[in-house]
C-alpha cells in the first residue's frame, strides 16, 4: 500500500547534515547526506535533496523533526528532539534487539542504552575531540589519506602500533613521530583505530555493557573502528548501511509517533 | 507589597562589587569568605561585613602563575580577582583548607595578593568526634582573635550568640523558601531560586532574611502549581551559571530541592546555641552537616540523603552538577551514583566550570535527560 503519511527527520550535525523521509512511519522513501553541518547551507541542501528524491514538497510532509547539534537553529521544525533520543529510536528500528548503541559523530561520542525502544540512559565524551570523527579527520590528514580510506588500510595492517596519547594534539605529534620512523601506514592506522576503540569502550563500560550492541553515526562506516571496538569490548557490533542516517531515521519515526499520539 | 517578580528582581540586582563599595564608603571593614563553611557568624559578631567569594564567570590568566590550569575554577577566579586588585577593599579573607586545592590557596594568596591578609580556617577532618569538635572550635577561636585584631574590638560571646541567631533565622527563612520554591516552579525559575539564595552572600543577613520571608509569603499565597515540566534535585558544589540555569528554564526543568554546597548545604543545618561556649556550637554545626564532598563522610551518607531529598520532593531525577577538576566531587560521584541507581532514580552528571563560555554539550545532555523523564 502506498504511503499516505510522510514524516521527515533532519539530523543537523556538527560536520554533516542528514535527512530522511519516512512513509507511514516505516518505509524509507528517500534520504540525503550533505557533508556540511550546522551554520552552513548543509541542512537546507539535505532537506531539498531528500524532498527532491522522494518527489515531494514540504507541504506533503506531515511532520518535520529536527535533531543534532544544529536542531535549535533549523527553521520549520514541528518537533525538536535531542540526537541521543533519535539515535536510540533509529538504532532500535534498525536492530530491534539492540540494548546498547555506540554513536560516534563528528565531534562527540556517546554510549546509549535502549529501554522499551527509546533512550534509557547515556554517557557522552567530554569536550575533548579525541575518539570522535574529528580525531580521525585530523589523523587521516597527517597520513595524507582520505578518511574513507582508513578502513581499507586497517584491513591490511600486520600489527597495531600503539598510540598512547589520548589528546588529539599529542596523538597527532605521536603519529608524526612514528611516520618519521618509516613505519607501515597500515599498522599506524590500526593503532589510531585501537586508540579510538579504547576511549569509546570506556564510555560503554561507564554506561554498563549490555549486549547486543549496535553502532550508529558516520564513524560506524569505518570497518576498522568497528573491528577494533568489537575486539576491545569482546562483543559483536551490528552496523547498518544506514548508520549515518540513524539520527534522522529516529527523528522521522519520532514525528510519526507524535502524529499518532504515541509516547 | 511589591509583587514576586519585583522582589526577585531586587535580589538579582544585588552586586557584590557594589555592596563592597557601599560598605567601605560607609566606613565598614569587609571580610571575604571563601567556601566552605567558614565561621561567618564571627565576622558579623565583630561588626564587620562578610562577603561571600565563590569565584566569578571570567577567564583566569594571572592565577595560572600559582595554580596549574587543571585546578578548580572557583579558586582560580577568586585568586585572579585578588591579583588584579579587584578585592583590594577587603580587610581580610577567610580561606579554609577543605580540599587539596584550597590547602595551598592561603599560601598562593599571600604571595599573589599582598594587600589583603589571609585568615586561615581549619576544620577537623574527624569533625564528629569530641576531639574533632574541640579542634574545630579551637581553630574558630583563633579566627575570632584574628578578626578582633582587624576590627580593633573584642568579639564577645554575647555578640557571637546574637550573630548565630541572625544566621539561624536566615537559614530557617531560606529553608522555607527552598521548600516553597519547589512547590511553585511555575513562579520561581531555577535562576530565580539561585538568585534569592545567592544574594545572602552579599547582603546584610537581616535584610536578606526580610526579603526572603517576603518572597516566601507571596509563594505561600499562590494556588497549587500547574507546572508540568520535569522536576529535578541538583547536587554538587556550585550551580549558579546563568547559562546553565537558562538551559533548565528553556527545557522546563524545575529545581525542586538541592544538595549544592553554595545553596542548601549552607542553610540546612543550624548552629545550636551553647550559652557557655557559642563557638563550640558552631563546631557542632560543622559536625552535623551531611551531603558535602569536602566534609569527611566515611559512610557516604550523601547518597542516602540525596535519594531521600529526591523522593521527598517528588523529583523525576537528579542532576549532578560536577565542578570541573573537583577531586572530592569526582570521588563522591561513584559511590553516590550506585546508591541512586539502586533507588531507581534517573541521574545525569553534567560538568561545569567558571570559565566555560559554551554550554551546548551540557544543553544536549540535559535535553536528552529531560526527554527520558517525560
What would a concise description of this structure say?
Chain A is an alpha/beta fold. Chain A is built from 8 helices and 10 strands.
Please describe what this structure looks like.
The complex is a heterodimer of chains A (263) and B (374). Chain A is α/β, with parallel strands linked by helices and 263 residues long. Chain A has two domains: 6-90 and 244-262, 2-Layer Sandwich (Nucleotidyltransferase, domain 5); 98-239, ATPase, nucleotide binding domain (Nucleotidyltransferase, domain 5, 2-Layer Sandwich). In chain A, 38% of the residues lie in helices and 22% in strands. Chain A is built from eight helices and ten strands. Chain A has helices at 42-54, 83-94, 133-142, 150-155, 168-179, 185-207, 223-233, 246-259, and strands spanning 6-12, 17-23, 27-34, 61-67, 79-80, 100-104, 109-115, 118-124, 213-216, 237-239. In chain A, the strands form two sheets. Chain A has a five-stranded mixed sheet with strand order 3-2-1-4-5. Chain A has a five-stranded mixed sheet with strand order 8-7-6-9-10. The longest helix of chain A has 23 residues, at 185-207. The mean pLDDT of chain A is 92. Chain B is an alpha/beta fold. In chain B, the strands form two sheets. Chain B has a four-stranded parallel sheet, sandwiched between helices. In chain B, strands 6-5-7-8 form a four-stranded parallel sheet, with helices on both faces. In chain B, helix 1 (4-12) runs antiparallel to helix 10 (205-220), helix 3 crosses helix 8 (157-183) and helix 4 runs parallel beside helix 6. The radius of gyration of chain B is 20 Å and the shape is globular. The model of chain B has no long low-confidence stretch (mean pLDDT 95). At the A-B interface, helix 2 and strand 8 of A face helix 15 of B.
Amino acid at each position: 500500500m502506498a504511503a499516505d503519511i510522510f514524516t521527515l527527520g533532519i539530523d543537523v550535525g556538527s560536520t554533516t547534515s542528514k535527512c530522511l523521509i519516512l512513509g507511514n512511519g516505516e518505509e524509507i522513501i528517500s534520504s540525503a547526506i550533505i557533508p556540511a553541518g550546522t551554520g552552513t547551507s548543509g541542512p537546507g541542501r539535505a532537506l531539498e535533496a531528500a524532498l527532491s528524491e522522494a518527489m515531494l514538497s514540504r507541504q506533503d510532509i506531515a511532520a518535520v523533526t529536527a535533531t543534532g547539534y544544529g536542531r535549535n537553529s533549523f527553521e520549520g521544525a514541528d518537533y525538536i528532539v535531542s540526537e541521543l533520543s533519535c539515535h536510540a529510536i533509529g538504532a532500535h528500528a534498525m536492530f530491534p534487539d539492540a540494548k546498547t548503541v555506540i554513536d560516534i559523530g563528528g565531534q562527540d561520542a556517546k554510549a546509549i542504552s535502549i529501554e522499551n525502544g527509546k533512550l534509557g540512559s547515556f554517557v557522552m565524551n567530554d569536550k575533548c575531540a579525541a575518539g570522535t570523527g574529528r580525531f580521525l579527520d585530523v589523523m587521516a590528514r597527517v597520513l595524507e589519506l582520505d578518511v574513507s580510506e582508513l578502513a581499507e588500510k586497517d584491513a591490511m595492517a600486520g600489527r597495531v602500533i600503539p598510540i598512547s596519547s589520548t589528546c588529539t594534539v599529542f596523538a597527532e605529534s605521536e603519529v608524526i613521530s612514528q611516520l618519521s620512523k618509516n613505519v607501515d601506514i597500515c599498522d599506524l592506522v590500526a593503532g589510531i583505530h585501537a586508540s579510538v576503540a579504547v576511549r569509546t569502550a570506556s564510555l560503554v563500560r561507564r554506561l554498563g555493557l549490555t549486549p547486543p550492541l549496535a553502532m550508529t553515526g558516520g564513524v560506524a562506516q569505518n570497518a576498522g573502528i568497528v573491528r577494533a571496538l568489537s575486539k576491545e569490548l569482546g562483543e559483536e557490533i551490528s552496523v547498518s548501511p544506514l548508520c549515518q542516517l540513524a539520527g534522522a531515521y529516529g527523528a522521522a519515526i519520532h514525528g510519526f509517533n507524535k502524529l499518532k499520539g504515541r509516547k | 507589597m511589591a509583587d514576586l517578580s519585583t522582589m526577585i528582581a531586587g535580589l538579582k540586582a544585588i552586586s557584590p562589587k557594589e555592596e563592597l563599595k557601599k560598605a567601605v564608603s560607609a566606613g565598614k571593614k569587609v571580610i571575604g569568605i571563601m567556601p566552605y563553611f567558614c565561621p561567618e557568624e564571627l565576622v558579623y559578631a565583630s561588626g564587620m561585613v562578610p562577603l561571600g567569594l565563590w569565584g566569578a564567570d571570567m577567564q583566569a590568566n594571572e592565577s595560572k602563575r600559582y595554580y596549574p590550569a587543571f585546578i578548580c575554577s572557583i579558586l582560580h577566579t577568586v585568586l585572579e580577582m585578588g591579583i588584579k586588585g579587584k578585592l583590594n577593599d577587603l580587610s581580610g579573607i577567610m580561606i579554609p583548607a577543605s580540599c587539596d586545592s584550597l590547602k595551598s590557596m592561603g599560601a598562593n594568596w599571600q604571595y599573589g595578593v599582598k594587600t589583603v591578609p589571609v585568615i586561615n580556617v581549619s576544620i577537623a577532618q574527624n569533625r564528629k568526634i569530641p576531639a574533632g569538635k574541640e579542634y574545630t572550635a579551637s581553630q574558630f577561636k583563633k579566627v575570632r582573635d584574628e578578626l578582633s585584631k582587624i576590627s580593633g574590638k573584642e568579639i564577645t560571646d554575647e555578640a557571637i550568640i546574637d550573630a548565630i541567631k541572625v544566621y539561624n533565622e536566615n537559614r530557617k527563612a531560606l529553608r522555607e523558601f527552598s521548600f516553597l520554591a519547589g512547590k511553585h516552579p511555575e513562579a520561581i525559575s531555577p535562576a530565580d531560586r539561585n538568585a534569592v539564595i545567592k544574594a545572602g552572600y552579599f547582603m546584610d543577613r537581616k535584610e536578606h532574611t526580610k526579603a526572603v520571608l517576603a518572597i516566601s509569603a507571596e509563594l505561600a499565597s499562590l494556588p497549587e502549581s500547574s507546572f508540568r515540566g520535569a522536576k529535578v534535585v541538583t547536587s554538587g558544589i556550585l550551580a549558579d551559571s546563568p547559562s546553565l540555569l537558562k538551559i533548565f528554564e528553556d527545557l522546563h526543568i524545575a529545581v525542586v530541592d538541592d544538595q549544592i554546597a553554595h545553596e542548601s548545604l549552607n542553610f540546612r543545618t543550624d548552629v545550636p546555641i551553647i550559652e557557655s561556649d557559642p563557638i563550640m556550637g558552631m563546631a557542632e554545626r560543622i559536625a552535623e552537616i551531611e551531603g558535602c564532598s569536602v566534609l569527611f563522610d566515611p559512610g557516604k551518607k550523601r547518597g542516602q540523603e540525596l535519594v531521600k531529598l529526591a523522593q521527598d520532593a517528588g523529583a523525576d531525577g537528579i542532576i549532578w552538577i560536577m565542578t570541573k577538576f573537583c577531586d572530592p566531587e569526582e570521588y563522591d560521584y561513584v559511590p553516590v551514583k550506585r546508591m541512586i541507581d539502586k533507588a531507581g532514580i534517573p541521574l545525569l552528571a553534567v560538568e561545569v566550570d567558571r570559565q566555560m563560555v559554551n554550554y551546548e554539550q551540557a544543553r544536549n545532555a540535559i535535553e536528552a535527560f529531560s526527554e527520558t523523564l517525560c
